[in-house]
Amino acid sequence: MSEMNEQEKQLVDWLADMDEDSALALAKRMLLEEGVSPLRVLELCRNAMDIVGKRFEEGEYFLPELVLAGEMLETIGAIAKPLIKQTPGEEPKKLGKVLIGTVHGDLHDIGKNIVSFMLDINGFEVKDIGIDVPVKSFIEEINVWQPDVVGLSGFLTLAFDSMKETIEAFEKEGMRSKFKVMIGGGQIDETVRAYTRADAFGVNAVEAVNLCKTWMGEAA
After folding, report:
1. In a domain, 1, yes or no
2. Is this prediction's pTM over 0.90?
3. Which of 7, 131, 159, 202 is the most exposed place for a label (fewest CB within 10 A)?
């Protein structure tokens, strides 16, 4: 990321520090009055989310902060995204299709929503099929939509079994080789990845985006 000016640093700090009112007011001013590039503002949001993610991992932040971070992102995204469409030459080409959902038995969607948002602003076409998604629904969506990557999200440890079951179903259907599978959420590590037989896991949204970019680079 290029050098940040004072105003940009301030936005990142306010977002990372959960100062919602100040951050949203500044983001709106930059986007709507000062004509700052919407992609730049979203890049600053990404930076702030990296910081939030680290604080969460270090036990300084908890779920309420992640929820608030997700809400702030959505609010800024809702203003920034239409502006990208209006700026000629700024519309990124779609890098690939990512189907994402929270596996059955789990109702958490904060992490999933942040990953969907980050993939979207990084140029992926994302289809989010929600929470507590049955295996059958994943299979139907994959058949219809033909994604390049399938993201399985889950925060609870019981989700690991659902992930394993979902991936096994892909194998039974003979579709497993047609896309990459990434898992994420909560306590996921290499042991869980090996157990579920996913291709990779991401500890945060930035990693998820990097995984997809790498895979699309390999496929491209």
Report:
1. no
2. no
3. 7
